[in-house]
Amino acid sequence: MANTSDIRNGLCIKYNHDIYKIIEFLHVKPGKGPAFVRTKLKSVTTGKVIDNTFSAGHKIDDVRVETHKFQYLYAEGDTYHFMNTEDYNQITLQKSTLDAPGLLKEGEVVTVIINSEDQMPLSVEMPASVILEVTATEPGVKGNTATNATKPATVETGAEVMVPLFINEGDKIKIETEKGTYKERIKE
């Protein structure tokens, strides 16, 4: 058993007969009244995100987890195939367990969180950012960069990302996986 002082991003807990992963938290100490922790919890079974507030000192039931590196192989409909980089065993996961499936490129190494008790995969953590090639976008217009104007661009995985006007087809861009936003252009 853990309590609210142990809450951190990525912690998996049992709550309301389901397993949730904490994706955001904030310790709040109001001027009047007791302290509390405001959290955003993501269900590892359904992918649904809920808001919850725990009072200070509240006991939470944490889940023992292991992390393993897996390489993404390919997708088949809503099923994604991964290979363990240590023992080469393959697993399949549903699209709902992935945080950003649209940004997943074949060969990408991700961290899979596995429940220690029953060896069931709970969630997949993507790298902080990925580098992808732009496959389709409208051509940029010279001198059109005075404002933070953006345009849609399709990357090699099929995902659509808003990019600055100077990005053209064939450019490689770095994308922040947590928010799915453009970070910078990569020059080779």
Structure description:
The chain is an all-beta fold. 0% of the residues lie in helices and 54% in strands. The chain is built from no helices and 16 strands. The strands form three sheets. Strands 1-6-2-3-4-5 form a six-stranded antiparallel sheet, with no helix packed on it. A hairpin with a 5-residue loop joins strand 10 and strand 11. The mean pLDDT is 85.
Short descriptors:
188 residues, 16 strands, mainly beta, 5-stranded antiparallel beta sheet, flat, 6-stranded antiparallel beta sheet
* Percentage of residues in DSSP E strands: over 45%
Order of helices and strands: EEEEEEEEEEEEEEEE
| Count of DSSP strands | 16
Rg, rounded, reads: 20 Å
Instruction: Output the number of helix runs.
Output: 0
Strand line-up across the major sheet: 1-6-2-3-4-5
Structural class assignment: mainly beta
Shape, per Cα inertia axes: flat
Oligomer: single chain
Helix content: under 10%
Low-confidence stretches: none
In round numbers, the mean pLDDT is 85
Measured distance between first and last alpha carbons = 50 Å
